Amino acid sequence: MFSFLAYVPHSKHMHIIFAIVNTFFMDLTPSGAIKKADLEKTETFGVNRVEQLSWRQLLDGYACTECGRCTDACPANATGKPLNPMRIITNMRDTLDAQGAAILAGKVEGLPDMFETVHSKEGIWACTTCYACVYECPVMNEHVPKIIEMRRHMVLTQGEMPPETREAMRNIEQNFNPWGIGWDQRARWAEGLGIPTMAEANAAQGIEVLYWVGCAASFDDRNRKVAQAFARILRKAGVRFAILGPEEKCTGDPPRRLGNEYLAQTMIMGNVETLNRYAVTRIVATCPHCFNTLKNEYPDFGGRYDVVHHSQFLRELIDAGRLTPTKDVLQFLTYHDACYLGRYNQIFDEPREVLYRIPGVRVVEMEKSRDRGFCCGAGGARMWMEEPGEKVNHRRLSHIEETQANAVATACPYCLIMLDDAAKTKNREDIRRYDIAELLDRSI
Ligand code: SF4
Ligand code: SF4
Predict the structure, then answer these.
(1) Residue range 54-104, pLDDT digits in tens
(2) How far is 266 from 195, CA to CA, in rounded Å?
(3) Where are the domains of the chain?
(4) Is any ligand 1 atom within 6 A of the Cβ of residue 318?
């Protein structure tokens, strides 16, 4: 016993002690909220050296049991990308062990940085920020915040980012959306539908909820149909709602996950100013990325609203008897969980319950579903990056194929784009792709 106790601190078994400490100090703030960088006072952004990490972040390395569950759950790793979340944690610890004495002596000049000792830049860019690694970890290690910090360093301090993302970022700067379509076209999807904007005088009087449309549903043809279906449902339920129209801007999710905190904060502050000017209290979003950012990140910038996702809002309307799905929608389908809705915000039941209430819909679950759901490959600004080798969305399509379902439903515009793309590329267009709002719209 005594020999073992003496041995523990010098062996990998020290995780027995550090796991308890790590769990005690785990981050209890919303997992979907990236820490705000102080752009006024900070001179260097993100991290590229181990000593720049906080003590809590460094503790992760010593708590790690090297069980590999994080890596087993990683969609980037599963499809052959050079990303190994366990190695991010263990290499960080080993680097600290190797450089600790020099760091304490203040001799950090010339020491290899984290992109040489912890993880390659390609690996850091391959992350979809799906959160599966963090969710799986038994000792509450947090891989994603470290990945974002490393991206911040590359983008803001080194000026490096995958070349294909430059255009998306430029589009956000110029037209406030990554698609690059003119900002004044944002409300084109709503033409002829008679949906008021907040700027229109009567809209501001007593609206129940602001519909946050998001860039995907405003500019992507497939997702414009989802926005139209959702608006029709709101009309049928008698909801008094309005949109911001051309005053809406990208919520800041893609630049923030890419590490471009400057651009993200510019978008966030512009939106908060607009929302507060209209004294908005309740927001419904059809995009889980917009929903997560508005709900969990905007409070840091003075934007506090009651934010709901459309799956929650639709279930609320059905429960209140304001919507009654009656027509049969004959579909044998499976439901794909969006990471930013499910793992980040624990919204697993609401979209399923909407589907269960539609007559004729039969739902079969994929093996990787709910908190074990597999990413579509678009999160973390991956939507705007090239993907070498096997595509994450193709792997996800194979999970859908295993169920023998003839359709897949989701509640995220990015997932819809990725699943659409996979079905077309793999010649499986017979598997139909829907947003839950489109199916509900057919039934009422
Ligand atoms: S967030 Fe997802 S893609 Fe990124 S390292 Fe973790 S499991 Fe892999
Ligand atoms: S899941 Fe957690 S404990 Fe297991 S290898 Fe990954 S970081 Fe370490």
Answers:
(1) 999 999 999 999 999 999 999 999 999 999 999 999 999 999 999 999 999
(2) 28
(3) 2-157, 177-317, 324-443
(4) no
Domains 177-317 and 324-443 share a fold: yes
Backbone angles phi, psi at 44, to 5 degrees: -115, 145
Euclidean distance between CA atoms 133 and 144, whole angstroms = 8
Q: Which two tokens stand for residue 181?
A: 């379509």
- Annotation: CATH topology of 2-157: Fumarate Reductase Iron-sulfur Protein; Chain B, domain 2 (1.10.1060)
Torsion sign over Cα 308, 313, 315, 319: positive
Atom of ligand 1 nearest to the CA of 136: 7
pLDDT (tens digit, 9 = 90+) per residue, 150-208? 999 999 999 999 999 999 999 999 999 999 999 999 999 999 999 999 988 655 568 99
Pocket test for ligand 2, best of 83, 89, 142 (most atoms within 8 A of CB): 89
User: Is any atom of ligand 2 closer than 6 Å to the C-beta of 134?
Assistant: no
Q: Specify the CATH superfamily of domain 324-443.
A: AF0625-like (3.40.50.10700)
Fold of 177-317: Rossmann fold (3.40.50)
